[in-house]
Amino acid sequence: MQSPQSPSLGRALSEDQFSCSICLEVFVEPVTTPCGHSFCKACLLGYWTHSKKFTCPMCKKSYSRRPEMSVNRVLAEISSQFQGLMLAGGSGGAGGSGGSSRGSTLNLSSDTSHGSPSNTDNGEFARAGEVPCDACIGRKVKALKSCLNCPGSFCEVHLRHHKKVKSLTSHRLIEPTFHLEEKICKKHERLLEIYCRSDHTCICTACAEASHKSHDLVSAEHEWKKKMSNLGKKRSELKHLIKERTKKLDEIKQSIKVIKASSQKELEESWQVYAELQRLVEQSQAELVELIAKRQREGERHAQELARGLENELSQLRSRSNELEAYAHTQDKVLFLQVGDAIR
Known about the structure:
The chain has 344 residues and is mainly alpha-helical. It contains ten helices and eight strands. Among the domains are: 116 residues, Herpes Virus-1; 122 residues. Helices cover 58% and strands 7% of the residues. The strands form three sheets. A three-stranded antiparallel beta sheet has the order 4-3-5, with no helix packed on it. The chain has a three-stranded antiparallel beta sheet with strand order 7-6-8. The chain is rod-shaped. The N terminus is likely disordered.
């Protein structure tokens, strides 16, 4: 009685409780986040390693630091037993007798858990400008939809839970959107589609009906187009101003170059004038020195001639003085008178 019921039970459980939302396989060493969602331990750690933020892959609840994760032994044991049911059901279906119904049931479960296709089989890798899947680990696949309730963007593979899990089927899916969390109303969990010109903020339809009825409201896209138009005009004006200022700056730079060249030329000319003046001063100084030296030589020669004349005269005077000195000592009157004419 138990074995016929096992595949049916296995199929129901595999869809709701025993599939990791990251790898889409049956849980291996399942761990549970503080917000209540379960994942394979390796999948969750790998997700946190690649995202570099500690958030729940399902509900996007953020944690300031990595939560302490312990393997949920009860869930691990049930998952192991469920895996055994899957394997037993697969062998029973292959055996033949009374297993056609059971085999088809297990094949359906196998498609869900063990036969999950790779990312490249269910979508292209996200390129520049395309919204990537938030649940993919490693290289991201291009997102197929964004969920306003999770919030997050998911590829075709990771959207399966939104189609299978009852608590996720009511979530609102939209076209893939960048920075989804910033575009969702925190109060009503709706997309910010309206712009309030009175408060200068984006709001959702519920906010518009509740607290912005008398305000000047327009669609966010309309206001975006208007602001983009104004931005375009301002950009054009700035480009024109930049062009004018650049031209003026080039003129000033050219003027600076001319001033520098002119100053350099004047400086070179002044050095030439200074050098010429220095040469003339040195020449005049040399001529003056030569003139002074010439005058000195002539003065010295003239003085030497005078000195020699005076020396000769002095010698004669001394000789005469000696003669007179000798006459002065002569006691013979007759002799003195005889030579008296000589001393006149």
